Amino acid sequence: MVKAAGRAYIGGMVTRLYTHPIFLEHITPPGHPERPDRLRAIERVLDDEVFAALDRAEAPEGDEATILYAHPQEFVERVRAMIPDIGIARVDADTTASPKSWQAAVTAIGAANAAVDDVFRGDVANVFVAARPPGHHAEKATSMGFCLFNTAAIAARYAQRQHQAERVAIVDWDVHHGNGTQDIFWDDPSVLYCSTHQMPLYPGTGAVSETGAGNIVNAPLAPQTGSEVFRDAFLSRILPALDNFAPDLIIISAGFDAHHRDPLAEINLTEDDFDWATGQLMQRAGRHSDNRLVSLLEGGYDLQGLAFSVAAHVGRLMKG
Ligand SMILES: [Zn+2]
């Protein structure tokens, strides 16, 4: 595609934040790690005056038809039928739905697609979407791992269909492998999927040998490793793959459960690592994608680790 040369941001780089009260109404059972308090913790930390320049916007209503960009109709209807009128319905071993879960999931998709619109129009420099439920475990026809639909995959296809993006890269630093995203793009070389994740760990996929159509780059991390191994995976595997692919858009599946405080995994990153990785991806977005960068919240289950990590991530997005 033709890239706009030297787009200037009058008044400097602006970072947009999309969120919506409906994301608090996707209710999970007591004790479930993927809970509304995660977003409250993010909201609180981003209330600080150092984030005063954030362009805060309410997520628009999502277009249900865009779910079909990544999932078959029959599956979409199966998910819709699982949404309960009251209480909490079990979708899989650890995935549940409450009465407002459909609206939350569709609004998360609406926010991600709007973020794609924003960066292609050049309205803002980059966007962080603070939404739930997360998405990267949702396969073509399977909801799992706290995820109903694969928001990042839908947004990537949305960029291709609505903005003529030829190549979209999804970089997933959630501590769990994004089996869903890998499944959806397994034979689609127009989307590069790069992931760092703990292995072994749920969901069990993500070996180096899983390469799809040459468009899948898995960089598994051994338990109890940390900053050095994570940064080396970026420098030796993920960033070279991005340079080789030259994407028109970079989407981050931004999970923060590789933070050392997180209860679901044993990778020992700090918020400084997320700051660093964000900076690296911004550099690549500047080099290849006319700065177009959209970041979507995935996991992160220790409220303090999550809040500090999001603060570092969004702070870096704002600094440029
Ligand atoms: Zn995760």
TrEMBL record:
InterPro entries: HDACs, His_deacetylse_dom, His_deacetylse_dom_sf, Ureohydrolase_dom_sf. This is Acetoin utilization deacetylase AcuC. PANTHER family: HISTONE DEACETYLASE HDAC1, HISTONE DEACETYLASE HDAC1-RELATED. SUPFAM superfamilies: Arginase/deacetylase. One of its GO terms (biological process) is epigenetic regulation of gene expression. Residues 32-315 form the Histone deacetylase domain. It comes from Mesorhizobium muleiense. Belongs to the histone deacetylase family. GO terms for molecular function: histone deacetylase activity.
